[in-house]
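agent> call fold_tool(seq_1)
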Amino acid sequence: MTNETLCPKCNSKEVIKRGILKTENKGKRQRLGCKTCNHRFIIDEPFFRMRNHENMITACMDMYYSGMSLRKIRDHLEKFYPNSVTHSTIYRWIIKYVEMMATFTDKQEMHLGNHLESDEVEFNRRIKHDKKGFEKNWFIEAIDTKTKYITFSTYVRKRTPKTITGFYRKVKQRTGNQIEIISTDGFLMNPRALRKTFGLKKTYGVGLHRQKSKIIHRVVKSDSGKFNYIIERFHNTLRERTKIMRGFHGCVSSTQSMLKGFEIYYNWIRKNMSLKNESPCSMAIPQVELTEKNRWIELINKGYD
């Protein structure tokens, strides 16, 4: 009996089923054997050599982004599993598999409306060797008002013309020519960054060089009693998760990975009541159908492939 599975030792296609392996934490696993070199192995990617079951790993990720702290997840596991894990192990799981899922989610073509809302939210990141003990950083994101899909997000140390321009350049790269309106607050760096990144339509008059932007920049200031309601609602959802953390720990790249995981959770996992309890990806990326009940495992497998 042969199949499309290749032997990891000799790359032979002559692979057959060869018994069941009983493991302590991962249950029963199908063991395979190679008829060419007699090598026995188990197909378990992308969870190869992980001592814990993939359901347990993804359950920890779901609990974390649903609002539980790493230590509370650890305490929860100790009540139900004989061999629990430390909070730092759960942290490493999140970093590893978020990056794997992002390789799939970031490549998908988005079908959006014509209106984006963009804003920033401030976070504290703890630094050991700093007198203050923390550093103020910024999480910047742009969300589509029609599908509620976060088109792009990034975590930066400071709001500078370079970082703001780089953010909108990525937004432009991912959305293409679908956007006609971008709503922001009254931050002074936004107009110049938008003119640079979303392109300019140049016209020439008599002795004049006139420029006209391809998009409409709508400035919404809170002191006038108006808000960008959709992105502010997203900020409230994000703060529900981060309010118990008292700031982020570690370097900027690890913090970026943790917040990238929340973007994936919001876009692909979490149900949105305004979308009739569907995830934003169902409207923004209709070409991808998620059929598994555990979407974490399905996205990890797609990212690994």
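agent> call fold_tool(seq_2)
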Amino acid sequence: MCCQQFYKTMRTLTILLILTVLSALSNAQNIFSALQLNQTRDYKTVSPKKIVETNTYYSSSGMQTDKNIKTYDQTGMLLLEERYDETGTLKAKLTYTNDSINRLKLTRTFERWTNLGYTKETAFYSYDSTRSLIRSTDKDANGWTMRLAEIVCNDRGLPIELSLFDGHGNSFGKETATYLYDRNRVVTAVVSTDGKIISTDTIKISFTTGSLFPNEKEIYNSHGDLVNWTRKNLNKTETIFEEEYTYDTLGNCTENKIYKVIVKGNGKRKRKIDRIFRKQYTY
């Protein structure tokens, strides 16, 4: 492989890695996180003062349980999220400032404690006159810009293009979005700096709305929660998931069990627990 080809390959891998990491951080540095930034998904009905989440994941090597504690303001907007590992050690803390009147997040400070030490960074969110998100700026503990996302929105205020830059203004490429409103879906594409499409994906526009696409393999209950869905795997096979929910008297979900369904050659089905999410509310 020549140097130029190697550089292009590494550049592509770098863009994919950055977008993957930023998606995990959910700080509006990609189309998905920009869409979800100001949507409320922690509760469905009455807003709580606090939620204690206990999340258990099952795998062939055993199970892992972690805990999140979330605190909300009087309007139901998230103020603080503390993340703990299995030993009860605080691993991360997210602190938000909000415009509670317009229901918009203004900043999010992310603190982490790892084996490598302590880190802190803050995301600043900018909006236009229609309250559409147009910019997300990440700065480190010293106030230096680490990343910048410039966002173009359509006439509905939804992001159709997100351009990502490092702290020196160098482009990491961009992501584009095409909306299928009748299906509650958006098709995203990661585009390299030379204009080539690196990858595509299809995601939901809103998680508060059930699937409107009749051919989509998803079934919802009367609360609007997903109870049966099929995931397409990279090897072109499909995995079926079934979910069970328990609700409190106010209609908020207190437990969500997710099962992976194995269909054998003889047609018999076997359910295997995959994840259990529990929530304890303080109102």
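agent> summarizing second result for user.
Residues 5-10, 18-26, 211-215 have pLDDT under 50 and may be disordered. The chain has one domain: 10-213.
agent> awaiting next instruction.
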